[in-house]
Design goal:
Oligomer: single chain
Order of helices and strands: HEEEEEHHEEHEEEH
Largest sheet: 6 strands, mixed
Strand content: 25-35%
Distance between the termini: 23 Å
Length: about 180
């Protein structure tokens, strides 16, 4: 599935097994199920050479260590790291049905970036993986489980970049094609 030297392979060595979201094999290909409150969101068509990480499970000690930004460590945050069509990507995803202020969502996504920076530092210091996530294209997405995805992207036209927490893409539905996250 993944090469040992790839970012996904190194992250599999660093993280506990419980922090890694197990892929679902479907006839459409590999998918992952993200927990959102009492619902699940299925991300369809996730590349096989990637890893999905449940951030609160990956960093519970860090979450309890911080006391100023308590909202930055709330549940429902995931990161998917991998490569598709020769392009390395890292997708920061908030799966949350709560009606939150946009600033709260941005803080939470920035918290996820900090945890991934920490993982990259651990990889550099203890696994000899210098520049683990350097050059990866970043995508920031909020997914609401209620409703259906009715919007279809016209991939030939330009859609807004979702390259920072401030420029996040908001999607709705219980089944989201992966290409909508990284488009």
């Amino acid at each position: 599935m993944t090469m040992k030297g790839s970012a996904a392979g190194v992250l599999r060595e660093i993280l506990s097994e419980s922090a890694i979201v197990k892929p679902l094999m479907r006839k459409e290909g590999s998918s992952v199920s993200l927990f959102c409150g009492e619902r699940h969101i299925i991300v369809l068509g996730v590349p096989e050479n990637s890893i999905a990480i449940n951030m609160p499970v990956a960093s519970p000690v860090i979450g309890h260590m911080l006391n100023q930004e308590k909202r930055a460590r709330a549940r429902g945050y995931y990161v998917i790291v991998g490569a598709e069509d020769g392009q390395d990507f890292i997708a920061y995803i908030e799966a949350n049905d709560a009606s939150l202020q946009r600033a709260d969502t941005e803080k939470r996504l920035r918290g996820a970036v900090c945890v991934m920076d920490y993982c990259a530092a651990i990889a550099r210091e203890f696994y000899g993986a210098d520049g683990l996530l350097d050059g990866y294209k970043r995508h920031f997405v909020k997914i609401k489980a209620h409703g259906r995805t009715t919007r279809r992207f016209n991939f030939r036209s330009r859609i807004a970049e979702n390259d920072s927490p401030e420029n996040l893409r908001v999607l709705e539905g219980s089944q989201i094609p992966f290409r909508y996250i990284v488009a």
